[in-house]
Design brief:
By secondary structure, the protein is mainly alpha-helical. Helices cover 68% and strands 7% of the residues. Strands 1-2 form a two-stranded antiparallel sheet.
Length: 246
C-alpha cells in the first residue's frame, strides 16, 4: 500500500486546519473567560460608558468566522460535525480540569499554590458549563440560519448570511449563557457568596453581553470576504451551491 493512498486532499487539509483553529479558539475562550476586562469609552454608546466582558471574547469571535467559512465551503453537515467535536473536546477539558484539581498536592516551594490553582480552575465551573451549553445551541442555530439565508439568496449577499446568522445565533447564545450562569446554575450549586439573579435581571445581563457580540459580528464581516478570497486564491476551493450545502 503506497503512501499516496493515505495522503489528504487539499480540501481535507484545509478542513483539518480550520477545525484545529476552531476548537483551540473555543477551548481557550472557555479557560481564559474567568478574567473580565474593562475598556472605558470616550463617550457613551447605547448607554454604556465602557466595554466590559470576559477575556474569552479575544478568541470566541474566531469561531463565528470559521463556522461560516466551513458552512460555505463544506456544508451544513461538516459544520455540525465540527460543532459536536468542539463540544466533546470542551467536555473532555472540563473532566481533565476536575481530575487535576482532585490530584494529591505536592508540597514544594517550586509548585504552584493549591489555592491559586483552585481559584483559577475551580471558581468558574458554572460559567464553563453554561458557556459550553450555550455554545452548542448557538452554533447549531447559526448553522441552520446560515443555510436558510443561503437558500433564499443563492450565492449573493455573503454578508447577509454570515452576519445575519451570527447576530441571531448570538442573541440565543447570550440569553442561554446568562440564564444558566447567573440564575439556574447558581440555584443548583448553591453558594451564599454568589446568590442567583432574579429572572427579571437576566434580559439586562444578556443584552449587555450581546451588545458586544453584535458589534464584533458587524466588525468581522470583512474577514468573511478575506477568508473567501484566501480559500479561492490559495487553495482553489469554491463555495458549495445552496442546494449542495446541506
Amino acid at each position: 500500500m503506497s503512501a499516496e493512498q493515505h495522503a489528504f486532499t487539499v480540501q481535507q487539509r484545509v478542513y483539518l486546519w480550520l477545525g484545529g483553529v476552531f476548537i483551540s479558539s473555543l477551548l481557550i475562550a472557555d479557560i481564559v473567560g474567568i478574567k473580565l476586562f474593562r475598556f472605558p469609552l470616550p463617550f457613551k454608546v447605547l448607554g454604556f460608558d465602557a466595554v466590559e466582558h470576559t477575556c474569552g471574547m479575544i478568541t470566541f469571535p474566531v469561531t463565528f468566522l470559521l463556522t461560516d467559512l466551513i458552512n460555505e465551503y463544506y456544508g451544513k453537515r461538516a459544520a455540525r460535525r465540527l460543532t459536536y467535536l468542539g463540544f466533546a473536546m470542551a467536555v473532555y477539558v472540563f473532566i481533565i480540569i476536575n481530575i487535576a484539581q482532585a490530584m494529591p498536592y505536592l508540597e514544594a516551594p517550586f509548585n504552584v499554590k493549591k489555592d491559586q490553582f483552585d481559584a483559577i480552575f475551580g471558581s468558574a465551573k458554572v460559567m464553563y458549563i453554561a458557556s459550553v451549553s450555550a455554545y452548542l445551541v448557538g452554533q447549531l442555530s447559526d448553522i441552520a440560519m446560515f443555510g436558510f439565508i443561503k437558500r433564499l439568496t443563492g450565492q449573493r449577499y455573503v454578508w447577509l448570511r454570515a452576519t445575519g446568522s451570527t447576530v441571531i445565533s448570538q442573541l440565543i447564545d447570550s440569553f442561554i449563557v446568562s440564564y444558566l450562569a447567573f440564575s439556574l446554575g447558581r440555584q443548583i450549586l448553591r453558594d451564599p457568596a454568589n446568590p442567583p439573579a432574579p429572572l427579571s435581571a437576566i434580559p439586562q445581563i444578556a443584552v449587555t453581553g450581546y451588545t458586544l457580540k453584535f458589534a464584533i459580528a458587524i466588525a468581522i464581516t470583512p474577514l468573511i470576504y478575506a477568508g473567501r478570497y484566501a480559500m479561492h486564491r490559495w487553495f482553489d476551493l469554491r463555495p458549495l451551491p445552496p442546494e449542495s450545502s446541506s
